Amino acid sequence: MSERIQDKPLNIWTKSAAISIWFIPLLMVWIVPDMIDFPTWASMTVSGIAMGCLFFLMAIGLTITFGLMDVLNFAHGVFFTIGAFVAWRIFTLLIPDWVEAESFWINAAAILLAIAATVIINFVLGMLMEKYVFRQTYGDHLKQILITMGIWFIGEEVIRILGLSENQAFFTPGWFAESFELGDVLVLRYQVFSILMGLLFFVLIQWILNKTKIGLIVRAGVENPNMIKAMGYNLNKVFTGVFAAGAILAGIGGLMWAGYDENVNAEMGGYNLIFAFVIVIIAGPGSVKGTLLGAIMIGVFTNYMTFFTPQLAAASLVLLMCAILMLKPSGLFPQK
Amino acid sequence: MTNNQTPVQLARIHTQANRYKSSSFMLPLAGLAVFFVLPLLNPSYFIIDLATKVLVFGIFACSFDVMVGYTGVLSFGHSMFFGFGAYSCAILFRTMPESPVIAIILAVLCSTILSTIIAAVMAFFSLRVVAMFFAMITLAFASFAEIIAIQFSEITGGEDGITLQLPEYFKVTQNVVGWITGQSLLYYFILLACGLMLLLMLRLTQSPFGRVLKSIRENEDRSEALGYKTFHFRLFAVVISCILASFSGILFALWLGFVSPESTLSVTITINVLIMVLIGGIGTVYGGIIGAFVLQLFESGLPQLRVLADESLPQFPMLGELTQKWHLVYGSLFVCIVIFFPFGIIGWVKLRQLKKQTA
Questions:
Q1: CB-based contacts of B238: which residues, under 8 Å, 6+ apart?
Q2: Contact A143/B342, CB-based, under 8 Å?
Q3: Secondary structure (3-state) at A90
Q4: pLDDT in tens, B218-250
């Protein structure tokens, strides 16, 4: 592998510094409740975790493709936007009365329909992209970045031409827009739903990677691609599948994000791509656990920061990344 | 005597003897001459503005090329350094309007220090682990810088930006000596600065240091095995490139007389510059200027192009619309250049020459 991890043998100071990273989430949970009242803190934390779970859906595709295929995909944000765009189109054009209905089952059916459409579209697009564009660029990072950037621009513009030229309101299906009341804490149902979706996909991915034959091939492909080829598996097909899976997950993330943010626009993928990059970097490439943890950390952290210092919310993200990289240069869960 | 020399030495002696006659010396000289006489031939604002933008963005693209083409690390934060230069110039001009020369010198110093620190921090975080993380980390830093510039509006003017109070002798209407107006004085100042920076970059990339950088780009493991500390070399190249980018930012601020986050800090500028480098040819230094020429010409000619497309081919309204879908054109340019035209204009010319020699 051309990656080089130049970690020196850890001395006691770097070791303790590395351990101290794990106090960052604890600090968030300990210190912040003292500054604000409990209900605000609770709803803020829940929405932070929900945001983190959506970030996870976006970043996991990047993590796996980067870990397995050593590929940097700047067009990942486009799949995110496509998910939101498809859901918006379906909700506004096809089934507006399903969305407005207050019944859980009809709303859930609407969301499932949007998810199914996104899955199909992103699966096809992801496969085509891997097969006809990406395959020519394996091994050359510079080429990959440039080509995927081009696709990013084209995709964004095409989405604009297809009707999303400006910011549009996205209506969350009626039942999900309400909130649960637990004592004096208000928790949006949609956020709980987002968290459940994130955890569901986390468990699903962990199960596929660790318990199934496909997962075994994928994991082995990360370790030693040549050996897998020598054993007679068609690694190209695995790559195509993994890439398409990443695209699908990003699409679901985008769809869910549109409901969370209640907005859709053509730039949302590019904007969230930065968050996804930061998460992939701090997670350590190829680590699913690290991605979930990093995503929730970023989600909660940005949410607190937006509350306390709205101007510096995005800046704090960079600072958090620097702090983590300073202590653990190869991410939270480095491979090997 | 000639018998004792290896073919490589002979070839080197041959190129040294012919170095003032070769096209790689004459062509840039001709280009310089064109830039020099341009204000004399046609002192219209359109032409001089185009020439200056080609110069400034050309140098900016060249500095980007020193990083991308010679070390193989791609940065999306290069516009941030451009913005550092532009903003330090604008802020210093505002704080000391009475002594512009000192302001420029101080701006050079400030932007050098700031760029060095930030570039070193970015490089430290990303190059140490996986060099390609650099692209992601710089993207995060660049959007961070843009947000800061918009948020801290007391210092940076927010989204409205800062208008520079140019010194008297750089003003457009001022007649300095004879035919030299303030505008052309500023133009010559920028030409001089750009020429010096280009010389510096050429010297750097053609020195043994540049060769080490190239070897790192081609095969990092091997150059490390040869005993070069690749991290240090990359770090140095990145820092130099960022400093030069901030200098071009200063020149841009001086020429435009106005600085705003959108015109100096946004990531789209980095992407423009990336396209310039790709058009001209990666890893050639001169490629940046050629790419800047092509792109600036295209950009300033775009309105005419739109009118032309509407008038000459009215049955295809798509064409006129296409010129408005700027991103679509950009994206296709990226993909097409990378797949079909990976070495840019200079690389293509060099390839042709090589084929002619071997044929």
A1: B67, B71, B73, B75, B119, B122, B123, B127
A2: yes
A3: helix
A4: 888 888 888 888 888 888 999 999 999 999 999
Q: Is the pTM of this model over 0.90?
A: no
Token pair of A70 as six digits: 């050593």
Q: What is the pLDDT of residues B157-175, one digit of tens each?
A: 777 888 887 777 776 666 6
Task: Tell me the nearest-neighbour CA distance from A152 into chain B, angstroms.
Answer: 7
Helices A141-161 + A268-283 axis angle, to 10: 150
Percent of chain B residues past pLDDT 90, beyond the cut: 14
Are A62 and A246 within 8 A, CB to CB? Answer: yes
Average pLDDT over residues B183-206: 89
3-state secondary structure of B298: helix
Contact B328 A158 (CB under 8 A): yes
Q: Annotate B16-59 with DSSP letters as a single string.
A: HHTTTTSHHHHHHHHHHHHHHHHHHH---HHHHHHHHHHHHHHH
pLDDT > 70? residue B19: yes
Given a contact cutoff of 8 angstroms between Cβ atoms, the answer to whether B331 and A150 are in contact is yes
CB contact under 8 A, A314 and B121: no
In angstroms, rounded to a whole number, what is the distance separating the alpha carbons of residues B342 and A102? 56
Residue A5 has pLDDT above 60, yes or no: no
Residues of chain B positioned with their CB less than 8 A from the CB of A146: 274, 278, 334, 337-338
- Best A149, A162, A306, A327 residue to mutate vs chain B (most B CBs within 10 Å): A149
Show the DSSP H helices in A133-234 as ranges. Answer: 141-161, 174-177, 189-211, 213-223, 225-230
Number of helical H runs and strand E runs in chain B: 17, 4
Residues of B in contact with A141 (CB under 8 A): 74, 132
How do the residues of chain B divide into helix, strand and coil, expressed in percent and rounded to 5?
80, 5, 20
Q: Output DSSP code: residue A8.
A: P
Q: Tens digit of pLDDT for each residue in B331-356?
A: 888 888 888 887 888 888 888 888 88
